[in-house]
Amino acid sequence: MAATREKRRALILCTGNSCRSQMAEGWVRHDLGDRWEVASAGTHPAWNVSAMAVQVMAEAGVDISAHVPKHWEEFLDEPWDLVVTVCDDARESCPVFPAAVEQIHLSFVDPTFSVGSDVKRLAAHRAVRDEIRARLLPEIAARG
Predict the structure, then answer these.
(1) Average pLDDT score over residue span 43-48
(2) Could you report the per-residue pLDDT of 95-132, keeping only the tens digit for each?
(3) HSE of 32 in the Cβ direction (CA atoms, 13 Å)?
(4) What does each C-alpha distance from 80 to 7, 10, 36, 39, 44 come to in angstroms?
(5) Residue 70 maps to which CATH number?
(6) What's the sign of the alpha-carbon dihedral 111, 117, 118, 122?
(7) How far is it, in rounded angstroms, from Cα 16 to Cα 19?
(8) Could you give the C-alpha distances from 63 to 2, 59, 91, in angstroms and in order?
């Protein structure tokens, strides 16, 4: 009988770790949690997770309300199979992780910069939420 394979580990990086990377972490845990352990962090973490990100993820059945922004340095010495940058700024300043890891980049618009009414801003968050699920999850799933 073959040994049971441990979960692969993914770290998702963004600038503030308040919206896109938090939604991505939530999706990976929700949809791929049987195969992947996931964390997210920022190059310049915000004070809290975007309330609208929490709201739109809850609408999709994913609870990220207990998430808090973290700095990437907390994870530097941990072994990662995959490091994903989800914004261009994080890609530019992505640290070099000592352990050999695969790194991929998929950029998503930051919905926290959307303007207009709450209805329009929520729509922007929903669009990014759905785009993250549609584009990022297949990339991660293909790797394990």
Answers:
(1) 94
(2) 566 565 798 899 999 999 999 999 999 999 999 999 99
(3) 24
(4) 11, 6, 11, 10, 20
(5) 3.40.50.2300
(6) negative
(7) 8
(8) 34, 9, 27
Q: What letter represents residue 87's amino acid? A: C
Helix (H) or strand (E) holding 62: none
Q: How far apart are CA 9 and CA 1, in angstroms?
A: 24
Q: What distance in Å separates the CA atoms of residue 102 and residue 139, rounded to the nearest whole number?
A: 12
Nearest of 90, 108, 104, 117 to residue 23 by alpha carbon: 108
Q: Print the domain residue range for 24.
A: 8-141
- Strand ranges (E), 43-113: 82-85, 102-105
Tell me how many domains the chain contains.
1
Task: Answer for the pair 111, 19: CB distance below 8 angstroms, yes or no.
Answer: yes
Catalytic residues: 14, 87, 94
- Residue 2 is assigned to a structural domain of this protein: no
